[in-house]
Amino acid sequence: MEKDAVAIVNTSPETVVQDYHRLMQLSGAFEHLPKDEEILLKLNLSWTLYYPASSTQPWQLDGVIRALLEEGYSAKKLIAVENRTVVTDVKKGADRNLWTGIFRHYGIRFIPLPDTEWISYNPRSPLRVLPKLFPRGLEIPEIFLGKWVVHLPTIKTHGHAITTGAVKNSFGGLLKEYRHYGHKWIHETLLDLMWLQKEIHPGIWAVMDGTIAGDGAGPRTMVPKVKNILLASGDSVAVDSIAAKLMGFDPLNIPYLIMCEQDGLGVANPEKIPLVGDTHRANESWGFISKRSPVIWGDQAIRKGFLRPLEKILLYSPLWVWAPFASYVYHDLFWYPLVGKKYFNQFYQTAWGQLWRKYAEKQKKQKWVYSTTRI
Description:
Layout: E1 6-10, H1 16-27, H2 29-32, E2 39-42, H3 58-70, E3 78-82, H4 90-96, H5 100-106, E4 109-112, E5 118-121, H6 130-133, E6 138-141, E7 148-151, E8 154-158, E9 162-164, H7 166-169, H8 171-174, H9 186-200, E10 204-217, E11 221-233, H10 236-247, H11 255-262, E12 275-277, H12 294-304, H13 311-315, H14 322-348, H15 351-364
Parallel strand pairs: 1-12, 2-3, 2-7, 3-4, 7-10, 8-10
Antiparallel strand pairs: 1-11, 5-6, 8-9, 10-11
């Protein structure tokens, strides 16, 4: 199977874990992922709280791990990783997104990236913006060097990047918690990160969950919509392109996808991407719209808009702490209880919500490492 092929699988709450095995098989993952080397499972934590479509789904993590183990991969060689941001807590997020119980069930190591060693790294590739954003030099997690990585993103919109998926999932791994500096030139930043991944990883695979997709002001304040679809590919650009097309966007109008294709880092043109599996679903167009939350609107106004003269004072001085506090107040104290809870309750009544409850119940029966599970 060619690595740039995108596998598409229709799924349901009753079959999703088994469907992930079929998805990975169709995509050629088991042909390429080595069994004798450690493999990183790069999770996606967009919110410490659980919110449908925002972060790696529990059945997504469960399905991928189970598929690998059934194919003979060793649990000792699978390492789940995720980073923090100035507005997320990765340890609490692992509990609230129901990852912790899955790690315990399969005996998978989970390494929060703030707890691991970061080393200076001098890229060989001609990067466009990261040297400007981090003039003191880049640091990356030492554990990433020389390891294959499997990205576990979800299908959703993004207020900065239009869409987010496999390519942007590296944003949360290769850069420290101050990676929000990259929002100023987000598309160029994502291109640079693809070059970095090419240097440090022998190979990359992406396994994307679209059971619940996020429409609107992503990656958090979205309207979750049931779509019952899974995607996978060894080409991060290609899988993001097909996800974008499904959402209703023209991938050739998304700058980071076009720049990656131009640099030979993947295929963005959906007409040139081989499809396997339930390929009829690739003809769908969901009519999603990428919007900006007030937090992202304000961030862009400071970095690129009418508030730019205040950028250094507001974001690069000791006064910067106002920004994550404002984000916390808006997202966790205002939007989630007043708006998001309504969407969560609607999700909770669906068959996917019933499946989510099963994972939550299993986790609550055990004593977990970090904190109690809360919605």
